[in-house]
Amino acid sequence: MKKWQLFILFLITNISTSVLGCGYYPYGEDIRFCFSRPEHFNMYGFSEFNYSSDLFYPNEDKYKSLEENPNIVFWHNYCKGKISYNAVSECVYSIPYESFNEKVHNNMVTYLFAKNDMEAIDYLKFAKKCEVFNVLYSDPWERNDSYSIPQRGKLIQAAEKLAEVVKNPELKRRYAFLAIRLAYYNNQLKDVSRLFDATFATEKQKDIVYYWSLYFKAIVEKDKALQSFYAAQVFIHAPDKRFAVFYNFSNEVSISEILTHAKTKEEKANVYALASIRRHDKALEYIKKVYELDPKNEALPFLLLREVNKIEDWVFTPYYSLFDPSVTTLSDEEKYSYEFSYSKIQARIVNDRKYAAQVLAFAKAVKTNKIEHALEWNVLKIQLLFVTEDYATCLKEIAAIKNQAFTSTPLNNQLEITEVLCRTANQTQGAFVILPETQENILKHKNNAQFVFALGRILEYNGNKTDAAFLYSTINHEMTWKSKRNKSRSYRDYFYDYFQYINVMSTVEEVKSLIADVESHTKLIDDFSTWKYKTCRGELQKLYDLVGTQYIRKNDLKTALRYFEKIDNDYWNESDYLWKRANMDDGFDDENPFFTLKYTPDFIEKKEKFILNKKTITAKLIEYIDKTENGTEKDYYSFLVANCYYNMTIHGNAWMMRRFGVSANDVEPYPEDEAEFQNGFLAKKYYEKAMQNAKTDKFKALCLRMIGRCDSFQIRYKNPNSSYEDYNTYNDSIFKLNTTYAKLKKEYPDDYDNLIYGCTAFEDYFNARK
Fold this sequence. Notes:
Elements: H1 2-18, H2 70-78, H3 85-94, H4 107-114, H5 118-130, H6 150-165, H7 169-185, H8 189-199, H9 208-220, H10 224-237, H11 242-245, H12 255-259, H13 265-277, H14 284-293, H15 300-321, H16 332-335, H17 342-365, H18 374-387, H19 391-402, H20 409-425, H21 439-444, H22 449-461, H23 465-473, H24 498-505, H25 508-519, H26 527-538, H27 540-553, H28 557-564, H29 569-574, H30 614-630, H31 634-647, H32 674-679, H33 681-692, H34 697-718, H35 724-728, H36 739-747, H37 749-757, H38 761-767
């Protein structure tokens, strides 16, 4: 039960990091920018520790190929190289103890029996016999984490005896290792140290068997500094034990204390290497130490890769998406502050670019002929040049490395992406375009959403919003990002498709430029243009809708109507507007914004019926506004116009005239008409006009009631923390803010209760206007 409780606690803790009470919010690997993908680099042995916002997790396969597995290599060499690696792997790992005999169909088994090598055969059979015991068995009464098993104790004694009598020194050491491993799993922890010291403590031949044995020595060591030292040596030399030994390196012990146990520069370098991987913040000083002490250290290129990945997260994640880095040293107060500060984000990016310059200076100073993975090292230097915005040098280095014998396709792909981004960013201010010479590589890497988005951001930041929008349209719902105009944080302070973004962030002129570009490319003859324009060409009608809606926001109704008239009837029929009910038989609707009000019983006879869409409503609004100026029923049409404007607010049934979606979680940046959308100023203006032209007191009272509704919206908008009673309750004690309701009660005392509390009074008062 204790272990299940720990597991459940672990599970809940990890779930809480990804599920935010009220719903999904982008985080972690979903937002982290990484162009230097670890899989592009030949460092598979350290892949369990790639920089990530997720927890480290073990790889099922510890080696990229059988030829890299030291145990397979040992037996391959033991058989004089005459047995294939696959046959060796099958013999060592797949054939069970019960079937291990000369009849089995395996080349290695056949070879050993043909050579009459009974020492090797007996060892392999003994090792297989031990396999079932190489696991901790829990005490069902939970008195101990593990307990001893008699059969395992006998195997330990047998392993010790066999180690003494076997003639082959390699097999002698392997028997000793089996005894050490069995002793650990049998909870004979003192015997682990005794057996290790007896066989390996003074041994100079430190091969994989030595480090396998040292792994168990490290686990049982009580001295934290010494345990950390052992862990560092195992970590570097035994790839299959890296994940298992990783957390035996203590962060609570100083590096200097751990280093007291090191006797060679190589051992010290190993300590610094593991200490560097344990850090999620800046680790350059440790990496420098590794190079200074042991330039050939296997971990050194991987440490640089991790540091570059950190820098990409710290710089590119906030630079391109405006999210905080996926892994950050920010305090909780800074990270979860309600205030969104673009200037603070930029200041952090500047500092992190400076750190990138320091890492680049170190990388340049390293003599690549002294290190492993020199090619990968040079590619990482190029990426640091890009991070530090030294585009000209970056492009020169890319050209130089391409001229070398360069056959790594993954690294080629990375360099192509970096080259496109550099070329685009290295243009003259004010003339940023998608360069023709970059189009082939853009198309080649079009499925890399981070790359396409970053390219769009570079163009957008430098004034080319049109091409940026085209690029964003190709990766809809694959990226999430914020805007410079964000002022607060919430669950929906981000964008995830291009239309959503330009709807809020682009001016009407910018959207018209986008449309003009699409319209001028009706005949596409090349693959790049076909890809670039595909989404926007397919949504041209929706873009007309957007421009018309933007003019509605400006209250330029006639221009809005011109754009709505460009739209085919099929678009209006297929659009999923909330006022268009799917079960309508006659094409009309009972929520006509001129005649009905949300949460209010119908009180106006619908003298005109028409199919509802933005075009028809805008046309009617223009017609009715004209009648408020020139008609004979100015009071009537002013009231209908006021109703429409009222319904075009967030409080009405035609909010979709101004918005393509609303949510209680929407936060700034808002469209330009947000104040009108929340307050209903135009509705109030026309209710006042209706009252000015009213011919009866009852109709004036109704107009005043509706003006009071608009005032309640405005009071709430100005005082978001005010209570409901402050702006929308109708008794003598609450006229604190809504003075219109007070005026209604004062000037029309006999009508007040009917208009405030009556469910059907509006119809009587409206019909009494003559």
